[in-house]
Amino acid sequence: MNLAMKACDIRKAVLQLVHAAGTGHIGGDLSVTDILVDLYYKQMNVQPDQMDNPDRDRFILSKGHSVEALYCILADRGFFPREELQTYSQFGSKYIGHPNNKINGIEMNTGSLGHGLSVGVGMALAARMDQRSYRVYAVMGDGEMAEGSVWEAVMAGGHYRLDNLTAFVERNRLQISGTTEEVMSQEAQENRWASFGWNVLSIPGNDIEAIDHAVELAKHTKGKPTVIIANTTKGCGISFMENQAGWHHRVPDADEFAAGIRELDMRRAQYE
Length: 272
Known about the structure:
The protein has 272 residues and is α/β, with parallel strands linked by helices.
């Protein structure tokens, strides 16, 4: 499978979903897509009909506001019928604006930032205690790093040497109220994580080959958990959305939708 082409397809599905529903956090969806594509189409041991398998890998989208990208991938993988997403964000639909564990493939309800890694630490520790082989992946936003509960989980993960745990910090440097550095300075992320005993990898976070290589390195790292600082571009793939805080939570109008589709089609053609 050409993962770069698949990422273009998922971005296009996200754009269509957000435009049709009239709501969504499209900027973060587009920046996290490459990470999710590598995990769900190559790296993770997870199947739609085996969510009761005790050895399945666990995934937590701690930055739950980027759920549209996750829903589009789960639908494409067959975790639920694609047409069910037509009800996204409608009254009574289970496809709400943050992950809902009533949906096949969702391990944890998220949305209130700062909790995903703590649950991931618990899952990874449970795997060790139960002598299970599964791995745990948690994806956080960089704005989320201002939450104190994140650093409690970082400390615990390092203390217990949870080498079956991989965390991603999706470092697009923008959040709803501006740049992360204006809101709460975060530079030296790598040094902070390393001081808690984590294996630290810093990569271009919209490069699928770099993501894939980092995940492989994490799998072979023993005695400590791994954090992948994924340096991404908010709105990646659609030029007029890139690096614009205003696209954190905004719906494209008809002209913007059409322009976005054209750009994504052109981007996909480069990989054919």
